[in-house]
Amino acid sequence: MCQHARVYLAPDPAPDDVLAPMPGVAWLADVERDPVGAMESFLLGWYPAPDPADDDGCWETGGGEPAEADAFAPGALPRALAALYRVARLRPAVHGFHDPLAGRPQRAAGPLGDRLVFAGTDEGTWDWSVPWPPEAAGGADPPVWLTFSPHRPDPEVVVEHEPLSRFLLQYVLFEAQHAAPYQAWTRVMPTTRLAPLRDVLRPLPLSPFLPMFTAERLFVAPGLLVQISADDEEAVFSAGTLHREALAPLGELPFPWTRFDG
């Protein structure tokens, strides 16, 4: 377990008076039926709307070959990706993820064919893309390609377990947790210590995220995003929130905290 752990540095806590009300989890009911709608509802509820005075209109970043000029026209992108970019215009904080959403998708070649890169690491260690044009792989909800060392002549490509619509929900939940100002992390501990959480957390009906690394299972509670990497013997727990008080109930658990902002 956790053989390819990654290190994230969470931002410093923000003043509570700039935050929106405690986000709810009503969107969870839509995950199976409409993962795109669930993603939109989560992001719009998690992140407060920005102050119009702070909007400088600068959202396009990234290199490579730009997508066609009409790539953002209605119906050009797969529905899930178009929805994420639409919400990112309303909630620019989405562009501040640790593994950032590209300011504009970039066309690129790859071992499996032409692709459209929409996110990846700043260091260029890997990126995520979909087949391009999307009609080449089913169109409406294409697979997602995780490409390691994409700038090398022989990159490795792994097909993500979830199709684009469900993958993007995983992606935004994972990244929003790591970007949250208040964090709680544990060292490796016995999996049995997780038992009290069964009555507190609601699991996402999705496959583990980043299975080649820590294979995080995602959970939510009001105002709280949680990731658990576990096997039958050992587990690692982490949580992120916009509101310090959302962590308070966790402080009563017998966890070996390495960081606890509650």
End-to-end distance, in Å?
Answer: 27 Å
Approximate shape: globular
Low-confidence stretches: 1-12, 57-70
Assign the structural class, choosing from mainly alpha, mainly beta, alpha/beta, alpha+beta, or little secondary structure: alpha+beta
Average pLDDT for all residues: 86
Query: How many structurally independent domains?
Result: 2
Helix content: 10-25%
| Rg, Å, rounded | 18 Å
Give the helix tally.
3
Q: Could you state the order of secondary-structure elements as H and E? A: HEHEEEEEHEEEEEEE
The proportion of residues in beta strands is 15-25%
Describe this structure in words.
With 262 residues, the protein is α+β, with helices and mostly antiparallel strands. The protein folds into two domains: 1-24 and 180-262, no CATH class; 31-165, no CATH class. It has three helices and 13 strands. It has helices at 35-46, 79-90, 164-179, and strands at 65-66, 101-108, 115-120, 126-131, 145-148, 156-159, 182-186, 189-190, 202-203, 217-221, 224-230, 234-241, 257-260. Strands 7, 8, 9, 10, 11, 12 and 13 form a seven-stranded antiparallel sheet that branches. α1 packs parallel to α2 and α1 runs parallel beside α3 (164-179). The two termini are 27 Å apart. Mean pLDDT is 86; it is low at 1-12 and 57-70.
